[in-house]
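Appendix B, record 7
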Amino acid sequence: MQKRIRAFLLSALVLSPILYGIGCGSSMEPTRFANPQFDFGFVQRVAVLPFENLSNDRQAGFRATRLTITEILASGALDVVEPGEVQAAIGKIPGRIDRPSQEQILTLGQDLGVQALILGTVAQSEVMRSGAISIPVVTLDMQMVETETAVIVWAATHTEKGGSFNAKVLGTGGVPMSTITRRCVQETLETLIQ
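Structure tokens (predicted):
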């Protein structure tokens, strides 16, 4: 019996890095666009608008927005307008703003004193199951829109996956959705802040 347990654990330890590589982390690099004519040094201060949420995870948009703000601030590359100021500026504009128009972008840029807005969409935030294995998956799409012309100067899309194979076999605990979202935000923003 002990030989079987040892053989099982040994095979799990040998296979776990292989399966971890398949089940955890992203399978491809982020897709990225950056306007080659735009001087990114011009951008010193940005506002992150609340992310649109296309997933069934009701907190996904809020979570991605907050993590994006934190990661930009942690990079030290840009100043970020406090979320309450952003909400107040959005509240002054009539109607609902999911995807702001050119006029709304220009207005928000002036009201908030920013050179760019960060817009985002959570396209996917779910836990996929394959037998006993749970794999959280998050897909984010972000854009930076310059506030003088309302032109998109940067855009990136990324999918991040995390597996819990080790949790099932070794009892180490699963990967929380917030961790996968944070990794996805970091990978996406790395294409902007280098």
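Remarks on this record: The two ends are 53 Å apart (CA to CA). DSSP finds six helices and seven strands in the chain.
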